Amino acid sequence: ACIQAVLESSIKDYDIYVVDNASTDGSADAIHKQYGNTVTVIKNEMNLGGSGGFNTGIRIVVELGYTYVCCLDNDAMIDEKALESMKCFLNMNKDVGMVGAKIYFSKNTNIIQQFGLRIDFKKFQAETLYNEVEDSEKVPEVVYCDTVAACVVMVPTSVIKIVGGMPDDNFIYWDDMEWGYCIKQAGYKVAAIGKAKAIHEMGAHIRKDNTFIQYYMWRNRFHFFMKHTKEKDLDKMSVKMLQNLFESVFEAMYKGEYNVSQTLLIAYKDALDGIRGQAMEGRILKNDGNIKDFIQIFQKLTKIRVESDVSWLQAILKILSLPVTIAEWSDTSAVPVKICSSVLRIKEYQEGNVYIDYDLNVLNNKQDAELIKGFDMAQGLFLYMNQYLFLQSTKRIRSKYRKPIANNVLQGDELLCQDD
After folding, report:
1. Which of these, 211, 99, 212, 105, lies nearest to 147 by C-alpha position?
2. DSSP of 182-222
3. Is 249 helix (H, G, I), strand (E, B) or coil?
4. Rounded CA gap, 39 and 169, in Å?
5. Are residues 100 and 146 in contact, defined by beta-carbon separation less than 8 angstroms?
6. Where would I find the Glycosyltransferase 2-like domain in this sequence (predicted)?
7. Quick one: the chain helix, strand, coil %, rounded to 5?
8. Is the pLDDT of residue 184 over 90?
9. What is the 3-state secondary structure (H, E, C) of 155-187?
10. Model confidence at 402: pLDDT above 60
């Protein structure tokens, strides 16, 4: 579907390269059989991940002298004007070094999945712009941002010759974040444009049978901020990241997700040790993530009352096929449900209330309340035990990358920007 969408584009002055990441399902041969010489299939001898796979194609595009390279995930479908719109935008805006599309959900094509990304150096995380916003005239035509998702992105090869390609030692996830960030650090603008539209399955939001996503997301997020946070903000970064990690581990343990919690700690350790590339054996575990407590509790309820975020809860109950009536808050015959940012932050538990958060964690009995009472102290101890080691590892990792951007093509992290 991705290839066919490209072939139906409004412009035809392009060549299509498909990089096969050492697949064993015969897909490369099937593509060649279906499209013949219309598509050039490049076979990697081993799985190099998303970033390594893209870089294989990018190297060829740069070497052959093309003006632009457009990277597409195999599950992304562009509309007929997307390529033309991105190319025209880059032609008219020479100060832009990367342009992406407005991405919609595949199951609801009027709802925006993402329209640019912002890297938040206060919360030390990525923010997806316009996520789950209904498309309308209120949404701007051009969004200048820190980076765009690599599922649909176009970059001038002249920029790649200066900045380099994706950091292929990420293997997958946060590679597009880092690429866009370094293009921006090199003095270029990064933009997403509304005239280029696409739909995407968004693999990182799809539940998998293992902890593949959790491992790479956490390891590479740690690595990014350890490497790119300004020197004066390293203490703040270490505190925020360690607090965030502990909260996620505690939350996983609270729900009985022992494999998930173990994966997060392994990802953290590998980040400290500077371990990159494809995950070693024993890192990716069976995914035991669950929302069974949420489901079990709401299966027993027939009528509830909620003060805020009623529409959000209604949507969740509908998705989970839970036939619960939501009454007015004044209806005291209904069970009160209180929605909060995190049940781990509940200080005063009131018996009879059900507390839930946006991750579908639940607090509804004294036993759970007692468990949560120890959260703040445990988090403080975790921070005290880990911060020095974290900062020492950060110092070691940063010393490895203290090289300026060089006019040397596609040597991965060796070319990444120096921001201090």
Report:
1. 99
2. HHHHTT-EEEEEEEEEEEE--GGGS--SBSHHHHHHHHHHH
3. helix
4. 27
5. no
6. 2-115
7. 45, 20, 35
8. yes
9. EEHHHHHHHCCCCHHHCCCCHHHHHHHHHHHCC
10. no
pLDDT score, position 31: 94
Contact of 214 with 267, CB cutoff 8 Å: yes
DSSP-assigned states of every residue in 345-407? G--S--TT-EEEETT--EE-SHHHHHHHHTHHHHHHHHHHHHHHHHHHHHHHHHHHT-----S
Are 361 and 343 spatial neighbours (Cβ–Cβ below 8 Å)? yes
Domains belonging to the chain, first-starting first, are: 2-205 (3.90.550.60), 207-404 (no CATH)
Q: Is 8 helix (H, G, I), strand (E, B) or coil?
A: coil
Is the pLDDT at 416 greater than 70? The verdict is no
- Relative to beta strand 111-114, strand 68-72 is unpaired
Per-residue confidence (pLDDT) for residue 414, from 0 to 100? 42
Question: What mean pLDDT value characterizes the chain?
Answer: 93
- Distance, CA of 92 to CA of 90 (rounded, Å): 5
Q: How far apart are CA 381 and CA 370, in angstroms?
A: 18
341 φ/ψ angles, rounded to the nearest 5 degrees = -70, -35
Q: What is the pLDDT of residue 405?
A: 43
Tokens 């002298």 belong to residue = 65
Residues whose CB is less than 8 angstroms from the CB of residue 140 and which lie 6 or more positions away in sequence, other chains included: 194
DSSP labels, 115-152: S-EEEETTTTEEEETTTTEEP-TTS-SEEEESB--TTE
The helix/strand/coil state of 112 is strand
Task: For residue 398, give both structure tokens.
Answer: 């940063």
Separation CA 63–CA 41 (nearest Å): 17
Regarding beta strands 125-128 and 117-120, do their DSSP bridges make them parallel or antiparallel, or are they unpaired? antiparallel
Are the beta carbons of 21 and 44 closer than 8 angstroms? yes
**Adjacent-strand bridge partners of 73:** none
pLDDT for residue 413: 41
5's CB contacts (< 8 A; 6+ apart) are: 77, 78, 79, 80
Q: Give 207's pLDDT tier (boundaries 50, 70, 90).
A: low
Q: Is the separation of the CB atoms in 224 and 123 below 8 Å?
A: no
CA dist list (Å): 386 to 64, 239, 259, 354? 48, 10, 21, 34
* Residue with tokens 């052959």, as numbered in its chain: 64
